[in-house]
Amino acid sequence: MLAVIPVGGAADYYINNPEKTYRGERYLKGTLAQHGVENPEQLKMSLEWQFSKGIRAEFSRMYRELCLLPEAERARRIEAEASPYVQHKLAVTDHYLRRMPSGGVGAYDFAVNALKCVSGERLGWLTADEARTCVHQCVSLTREHYSNWHDYCIGFAVGLEFVSIDPNSSNYVIEGIRRLRRLLNFKDSPLVKEKFF
Fold first, then answer.
1. The Cα angle at residue 50 between residues 64 and 175, in degrees rounded to 5
2. What is the pLDDT of residues 160-180, one digit of tens each?
3. Strand (E) or helix (H) holding 16
4. Could you give the 3-state DSSP secondary structure of residue 100?
5. 81 Cβ partners below 8 Å, 6+ apart?
6. In sequence order, which ranges of 53-189 are alpha helices (DSSP H)?
7. Rounded Cα distance, 191 and 1, in Å
8. Structural domain boundaries of the chain?
């Protein structure tokens, strides 16, 4: 589930050696801080929010809004948006309109929650039982929303692009297309070795 998260130059190494990914207190705290989490209380609130709503609620709302508009009106709606961050989210939603798997961007919520659980346990902010229960819930929700790794990877990649803090940043799907193809097609890939959950 976490294999799609690593990005950057060392991503391939961490995808194939996931046990080495989440080590070091400073790294773990930095990872959680990127998700607005700086203490155990914030972690529990963040986990609860991502399980109950997450980014999938906002994506779904924007999807429904844009889906009802003709193409020209969608373009005007996006252009008229004052906030560059919301404009970016609308543009991403529009780009993937009618091309999303049925699970939408839930894969992002579920993978990030699993990451937060693992990080929280390693920092001592969650007990082993709490982390295990949380990860089990992530896996259950993933199984409920996705039937294969291909749809899961699409949902995750679009979710990551949707929440990109910098609307001008390069898009994860384009940057990581070779990596995603390897994850889905090479016989030694963790996604090919394992059945979908």
1. 75
2. 889 886 655 555 556 666 666
3. helix 11-16
4. coil
5. 87, 90
6. 54-67, 71-80, 84-95, 106-122, 128-145, 149-162, 172-175, 177-185
7. 9
8. 22-193
CA distance 84 to 166: 9
Q: How does pLDDT run across 43-56, given as a tens digit for each residue?
A: 999 999 999 999 99
Q: Among the residues of 123-176, which ranges form H helices?
A: 128-145, 149-162, 172-175
Cα 145–Cα 166–Cα 7 angle in degrees, nearest 5: 60
Contact 176, 15 (CB under 8 A): no
Residue appearing with tokens 């209380």: 41
Rounded to whole angstroms, how far apart are CA atoms 122 and 108? 21
CB 134 within 8 A of CB 113: yes
**Per-residue tokens: 11:** 């991503």
Q: Which residue matches tokens 């384009």?
A: 174
Q: Please name the amino acid found at residue 177.
A: I
Place of tokens 């699993």: 114
Contact (CB, 8 A) for 157 and 4: yes
Q: What is the Rg, in whole angstroms, of the alpha carbon atoms belonging to the chain?
A: 17
